Amino acid sequence: MKKYLLFISLIVMVMLAACSSDEEGASGDEETTIKYAYWDKNQEDMLKDLVEEFNKDNPTIEITLELTPYDQYFTKLDAAASGGGLPDVFWMNGPNFVKYASNDMLESIDESISEDDLDTSPYPDGLLGLYQYEDKTYALPKDYDTIGLWYNKELFDEAGLDYPDESWDWEDLVSAAESLTNPEDETYGIAAFIQDSQATYFNTILAADGYIISKDKTQSGFDDPNTIEGIQKYHDLIHKHEVSPTHVQMETTNATSMFESGKVAMMFQASYMIPQFKANEYTNENVDVAVLPTIKKRSNVIHGLGNVIASNSENKDGAWEFVKFLSSEKAATIQAEAGIIPAYEGTQQSWVEATPNFNLQAFLDMAEVSEPYPVSKDTSKWATIIQDNLAKAWAGQLTVEEASEIINKEMEEILASE
User: Fold this and answer.
1) Structural domains of the chain, ranges and CATH numbers in brackets
2) What tens digit of pLDDT does each residue of 127-146 get?
3) Were 237 and a residue from 47, 138, 149, 244 both cysteine, which residue would form a disulfide, CB within 3.0 to 4.6 Å?
């Protein structure tokens, strides 16, 4: 009898084990929770749609969204990093990337890309390069911003001028700005503002074949004659050609406000201004955008967000699956329909078609001639030096050459200490 009961018990145990195995097979891998941090509440609904789409093929990976406003975002991340508690996946931008990568806070994804034979060719080279450090890749691009030449069609029509196009060089821009400037009614051909380096003088530096920081992030480019030339040409719009409001005027009333009120005919500005120009009744009806003019070449800064994985994440496999999806063609299409330029080539048409009154193709064309946003470990330190000294040049307190010499010296000292 005892032998019989033992035999029955063994059979029951085997059956229970089999049932357990069947249940695990039906549900896939064990449940995994991925914390995903971001800072833009305007993208929250879109991110929820992405999570829902991701879970169709990955039902056992739960994604927890963590929103933190941008002005608190990196402070919170820094605190989490010191305590070993970074989110599994989180948004990263160019100015902060090197600090995190160089301090081993981020997981390199090169091996995962190789193992999955993932094609990275659909992403702009300049954007991929933004999230590479010491020959390692740490992020797949999510979206991007490029720079265009916004112009007022009404003012061009009144002056009898052709609109800017891909044939324009710097001389064409200056000539048109001179025709569009009318001191009597304080209307200017262009606004040579410097409050946003990404949208303004960084691009004239690159178009003049200069550079802001060397590719190995060890040298300043502000002793390069081409860099100085690119800054000088932009500076001359105020101090030589007198086709732009002065620096003081643009500190009192910002250049964008002047453009939105029809007092400025042209301005360099990024694709991230599209929602604002769409919302403004005057600009929505009267402005458009073209590619930037050439100096020695056509170029511009590209910047965009990347999705990174924390090096101390306990769920790296699940995190990689999510990161891979977030930069996939399917996810890019969802972003495009939500009004965000996706990084994945070939999915931007929905974004272009969403605003037919603006030539948004110009921003996609500028992505083809883009260079990564300049960064190092302590970007903010030398970026402040650049801004402060160029402001003095714009105000007439220094020449461009003098400002560049100071910037180069102090920037080199910071880079040497990194």
Assistant:
1) 31-144+304-353 (3.40.190.10), 147-301+378-417 (3.40.190.10)
2) 888 999 999 999 999 999 99
3) 244
